[in-house]
Amino acid sequence: MREYADRILMHTAVRGSQVDRNKTPISPVLGIVIAAGLAYSFATSTRSVLAEAPNESPTKERLIRLEEVHEHNRTADTYWVFRGDSVYDITDWVPNHPGGEVILRAVGGSLEPYWNIFTIHQKQDVYDILEQYFIGKIDPRDLVDGKAPTGQVEDPFKSDPKRDAALIQHSTRPCNSETPESELGSYITPIEKFYVRNHLWVPDVHDADSHRLTVELYDGEEVEYTVADLRKKFKEYSITATLQCSGNRRSHMTQASRPTTGLQWGVGAISTATWTGVRLRDVLADAGLDVQDPDEDIKHLKFVGAEAYGASIPIDKAIDRHGDVLLVYSMNGQPLPRDHGFPLRALVPGHVAARSVKWLNKIVVSDEESSSQWQRRDYKCFGPNVGASHPDWDAAPAIQETPVQSAITAVRQVKADRLKDSGLARVYGLEEDSVVLEGYAFAGGGRHIVRVDISPDRGRTWMQAQLQEDGAKMGASGSPDDHRAWAWRQWRAVVPATQISGKFCVKATDDSYNVQPDTFEPTYNFRGNLANAWHRVLVSRDDKPVEGQLGK
Amino acid sequence: MREYADRILMHTAVRGSQVDRNKTPISPVLGIVIAAGLAYSFATSTRSVLAEAPNESPTKERLIRLEEVHEHNRTADTYWVFRGDSVYDITDWVPNHPGGEVILRAVGGSLEPYWNIFTIHQKQDVYDILEQYFIGKIDPRDLVDGKAPTGQVEDPFKSDPKRDAALIQHSTRPCNSETPESELGSYITPIEKFYVRNHLWVPDVHDADSHRLTVELYDGEEVEYTVADLRKKFKEYSITATLQCSGNRRSHMTQASRPTTGLQWGVGAISTATWTGVRLRDVLADAGLDVQDPDEDIKHLKFVGAEAYGASIPIDKAIDRHGDVLLVYSMNGQPLPRDHGFPLRALVPGHVAARSVKWLNKIVVSDEESSSQWQRRDYKCFGPNVGASHPDWDAAPAIQETPVQSAITAVRQVKADRLKDSGLARVYGLEEDSVVLEGYAFAGGGRHIVRVDISPDRGRTWMQAQLQEDGAKMGASGSPDDHRAWAWRQWRAVVPATQISGKFCVKATDDSYNVQPDTFEPTYNFRGNLANAWHRVLVSRDDKPVEGQLGK
Fold first, then answer.
1. How many CB atoms lie within 10 A of CB A77?
2. What mean pLDDT comes out for the span A157-173?
3. How confident is the model at residue A428 (pLDDT cuts 50, 70, 90)?
4. What is d(CA B370, CA B23) in angstroms, rounded to the nearest whole number?
């Protein structure tokens, strides 16, 4: 069990039947939807897993009536839970809970139905933490068949929205679906084709205008704004920005190197939209933060979502007048859709999408990072030699800005006669059978893409792809700044079929002249984050279908 | 001649006898010291090269007395020069001169002595430009033996300072010398061991306090400060920052890939100092620039040095309150040495050193980049397929922030018994014959180094080097900001000799998780700029000397 728990601790998600390099088959018991960041098993029964629990204290315990546990719910000053027939006062643990305040769903009752949803907890490390808060046993008078009744909990995913059938689904609870290649050629991704990366369920907010955002200043003072307040009080900005999951192209790393934990995204965990909202900087200034010269102890800005997801960004980014961090209520001119954060989300351009917290209801000015697992664990990279079993999580910084990336999203063989018909022959001066390649390139931190290099012969020779128009400039009406590149550049290359020899490669260069690494193994990390080695695709010379998948 | 001129245009500098892939031997005629950026031949005679000049106009020309030419000197409204017996009014060319205002040295007289110093001009492209400004011939009454007397010019390098003998000299006129490996282990590079990268001579400024800096605002208004004014009027800051030439490790690219133009630096075109001065932002604000919200047409800040070197940085960097751009008058607690910009230089941390203009005497707030060749030509990177003959210079942006870099600077075999004696056995838990490696890692843009990976077996397996203490935090007393990493991190690794198989490799990762490319060829650029593929060094298992050079 210990070994199994350790593997769950790593949020193992693999395609097929292998969990790690030991090739232990994954247990089928939990019937799992495993997601990067959290492993879920939404079991409809509340089947006990107590047989695996640690031995309980042999000393004489305090007996506690179930009714008293129920009183220590989220409205109380102290929070109690029970597991089996043991009762715990977890008040002191709540602020340290890696998953944030979602833990308050369970207080006043049994942990078990929740741990059957959030199966990540079913491991010795968590049992050990829990035992520190043991305060007594359920009074035997309240036991039924020798067990405390765990009750039922509502399926938090039951009100999730329907998704477009064209999305490539990696998990449903939570929803994680990537944009299909056919939609990645659009500069602005249509809303319903925008990739969905949820860590939990979609909160069910009914009234956008009355949704409240609480800003907690460094001295603890809180200022509240409804979404209606934000719209009314602050200048509105629109920014075209690309969001990219840290797991984009993870499947490429897995295929080229070794198994990685997390969802096996292809090239489509990335999309672009025009986002409209108000500047975080302006809201913070209004709430009372000195955005010109904040207290030097202030280092981070935390975001909390309504579903209890949490993350943070450096305060410098939050208040940078060219940082363009927005509180967004509109996407591509439409009200923000539920999957993308309705009614309010953060938009942290240039940073990994995990910092653009959705369903935003709290902002905290702080001297420390968010304590969530999404800040302190999942979104980090270690060396290729660091295994998943016991990494020193604190040794690596949380991913914020992302490295330069590119991918091939379309490969089409075009016969000479069709080339002429399409006008491409004239544009490119080609009269022979050719291959048309298309894709995107994107760098974090607002860095521009300065060049996309394409090789038709596995990296032996190179040529430059044609960068397509920078749609962000057209789309970002009212953008506070056009110095930074917050959105991808799409590119196209037309290559004579005779030049093709082996795999096509693409690599991009950003304006710090950072480049993508040649291969995956030297940047392998067990979480499979930031997989940005050259994208290689096998293309046949004739018009046979492309060999090798672009996506998954 | 045309072919030769083209090669000079590319500022060709190669070791040995090969100029380019055509293997044409370099002409010995000019007895050359060729430097990246400018090719010089300081000939003591004023030998004419007019045999190569274009045909002169066959039409009847205006005859001009030599005295009249002399009157059109740098104090006049219009600038005339002569070459052979042709006279040119170059007034309109001066602002477009890639080498900046150094051209004013020649006005009122003959170009020839200067073109014998700055031999880059001896090519058809330049002759063609000059002919556009032809206005007449020297009156035959002023010719001596059929030629106009060219006069003598003073050797501008004659007052250059003496340099430390330990520096590795790449050229003397101008001085370009790298820091020896033995000095790269020092966190703060001693002043006399700090690498020297001069593009021209060292200006001879005698009185530091009375040296004037002119700040030209966007409306053309000028404000002057003496260095004494700067010291008196503005708050003083000290910052520990690493400067790195864009050519650092160029020789590695050349060896691994193909010939590159420019000085063939090893690992030592990089050094670190603690710089003291005033913030550019504060000076600009005092001069009248709205540094909170400058006119949106303002995009760049130009620097001009007393020797006429020029470069620019984006205005955002210049006014960023965390950008830490300083006007420096002190280095490691000493007055700025002559080779490093006495009495005043710019320090643009996180950017390529070519932007930290020395002997600073003018700053210009502008809507465009510096027009100098060092901004618009030399310091750029093109694709591996782009040849040196006719690149589209405007297609690549000027290098500003630099990509992540690392190098091995020391390799020592240590026998087990010496390991014990040194205490390293205890520190590293090693009791066998081992190899100790040391080096540096550095990223541009203020990005921190988060990890240095070392491979003892040519990249097959990896381990993490130990990052040495971040000396910048100790050194940067009074630093306005400690969020950005402006200085290198040094590292050390101790590896059992038995693990060694093939070349040692090192690569670093910055906090945007950008990494160095695996190999050189895919980032080859004919200028050999930003050579940052993994550094590979062949180390023998026993205590034989290291095979393969670290430096050149």
1. 6
2. 94
3. low
4. 35
Per the CB < 8 Å rule, is B384 touching A511?
no
| pLDDT score for B472 | 66
DSSP reduced 3-state for B82: strand
- SS3 helix, strand, coil % of chain B, rounded to 5? 20, 25, 50
Picking from A383, A396, A401, the nearest residue to B453 by CB comes out as A383
CA distances from A377 to A14, A302, A529, B287, B449 (A): 18, 16, 12, 48, 19
Q: Pick the closest to residue A253 from A18, A20, A529 (CA basis).
A: A529
CA dist list (Å): A54 to A93, A127, A139: 19, 7, 20
Residues sharing a CB contact under 8 Å with residue B517, sequence separation 6 or more, in sequence order: A515, A516, A517, A518, B523, B532, B533, B534
Domains and CATH numbers, chain B: 2-142 (3.10.120.10), 174-388 (3.90.420.10), 405-538 (2.60.40.650)
Check pLDDT > 90 for residue B482.
no
Q: How confident is the model at residue B473 (pLDDT cuts 50, 70, 90)?
A: low
> Using one digit for the tens of pLDDT, what is the confidence trace for B61-100?
899 999 999 999 999 999 999 999 999 999 999 888 877 7
Residue in the block written with tokens 């914020």: A400
Nearest-angstrom CA–CA distance, B414 and B416: 6
Q: Do B462 and A522 touch (CB under 8 A)?
A: yes
Catalytic residues of A: 97, 121, 197, 245, 379
pLDDT at B35 over 50: no
| B428 counts as catalytic | no
Q: Which of B458, B442, B461 is nearest to B450 (CA)?
A: B442
In whole angstroms, give the CA distance from residue A9 to residue A120: 6
Cβ B257 vs Cβ B521: under 8 Å? yes
Which candidate from B383, B444, B518 shows the least CB-CB separation from A518?
B518
Partners of A510 in the β-ladder: A449
**Confidence at residue B6, expressed as pLDDT on a 0 to 100 scale:** 35
Task: Tell me the ipTM for this assembly.
Answer: 0.82
What integer pLDDT is reported at residue A546 of this predicted model?
52
A interface with B, Cβ–Cβ below 8 Å: 314, 316, 322, 381, 383-385, 396-397, 399-404, 444-445, 448, 450-451, 453, 459, 461-464, 483, 507, 509, 511-519, 522-523, 529-530
pLDDT at residue B53 in the model: 40
pLDDT for the residue B61? 81
**Kind plus residue range of the DSSP H or E element containing B264:** none
* Total Cβ atoms within 10 A of residue B171: 18
Which chain A residues are closer than 8 Å to B314 by Cβ? 483
The rounded distance, in Å, linking the Cα atoms of A260 and A263 is: 9
Q: Measuring CA to CA, how many Å separate B309 from each of B10, B95, B113, B303, B370?
A: 18, 14, 20, 8, 10
- Strand, helix or coil for residue B526: coil
Question: For position B27, what pLDDT does the model report?
Answer: 31
CA–CA separation, B491 vs A346, rounded Å?
38
User: Is B9's pLDDT higher than 90?
Assistant: no
Say what the pLDDT of residue B22 is: 37
B121 is catalytic: yes
Range from A416-425, A463-472, B174-183, B317-326 carrying the lowest mean pLDDT = A416-425
Residue from A399, A513, A523 whose CB has the most chain B CBs within 10 Å, to mutate: A513
Q: Are A7 and A23 in contact (CB under 8 A)?
A: no
Contacts of B346 (CB under 8 A, 6+ apart): B280, B303, B325, B326, B327, B328, B355, B356, B357, B358, B360
Q: What is the pLDDT of residues B91-140, one digit of tens each?
A: 999 888 877 778 898 999 999 988 887 777 888 888 999 999 999 999 99
pLDDT on residue B544 = 52
Interface test with A, best of B393, B514, B519 (most A CBs within 10 A): B514
